[in-house]
Amino acid sequence: MLQTKIVEIVSELGISQFAGEIYAHLVELKNPSITELCIQTGSYRRKVYEALEELKQAGLIEKENDYSRKIILKSPVVLDTLLKAKKYQLNKVSLEYQDLLPQLVSNFFEDPKQLSIQVFEGTNRFKYLFNILLDQTDEDLEMFSYNESQDLYDILDLDYFLTIWVEKRITKKIFAKVLANSKNQFADFQKQFDKQKYREIRTLKNSHQTQSCIWLLGNKFILWDTFKPKAVMIENQAMSTLFKEMFESIWEQS
Fold first, then answer.
1. Range of 33's domain?
2. Within a domain: 122
């Protein structure tokens, strides 16, 4: 019974069944000889030597041994220490795996070519997405903006928004269709510059109190939460197509 338990315990260190049996005999017989181990296990000397070498590599017997004369077994406390170290490593790996699990599950169930979701939280990350967005977008596209409000401009650098960013959009021949919040007075002022800024602004008929805005660029679907601030970018052709159809329907009524 004791031998069986010992074999089960040392197997937790990745030690083979036979090496575990040899270790159990070493504990029980108080440092037996090679001959005694061969008799106890019914095995040949070479296999016993290989098992002893495995135990030595695991740190359970002394490294400097002349097995033919005496096998020096380390204290059972060493086994306890090794098991605790193994448990610590497993817990560490488990925690790291838990961090990776959401992404692994996402990759397992979704084709990354079909769906990609990125979250940009905080003012700096919010601005970062805004600044790199056009660099990651193809040329000759339409850009759709729904419920664009003054809040979005307040978070971003207004001068940059009106100059460099717009120039970059024009250079890439990305025509902007903007459905502005009915309370966005800045949008009303900007309508007079639509032609030179390669866009068209229309005002939503109903007031929208939410501090959020939706953009569509190609297959990129971006939700801007100006209250947090926080942005979520989803790259998915099916979702983008659906939003475009909804946008065009509202656009025609505005």
1. 2-79
2. yes
pTM of the model: 0.54
- Based on the domain organization, do 164 and 70 belong to the same domain? no
Tens digit of each residue's pLDDT, the chain (254 residues) = 677 888 888 788 888 889 888 888 888 887 788 888 888 888 888 898 888 888 888 888 877 666 666 787 887 778 888 888 878 777 777 777 777 766 666 666 555 455 688 999 988 888 888 888 888 888 999 999 998 887 777 777 767 777 888 888 999 999 999 998 888 777 888 889 999 999 999 988 776 667 789 999 999 999 999 888 899 999 888 888 999 999 999 999 88
| E-assigned strand segments in 153-240 | 175-180, 199-203, 212-217, 220-225, 230-235
The answer to whether residue 141 is domain-embedded is: yes
| 134 shares a domain with 44 | no
Q: What are the structure tokens assigned to 178, written together?
A: 């903007």
CB 234 within 8 A of CB 221: yes
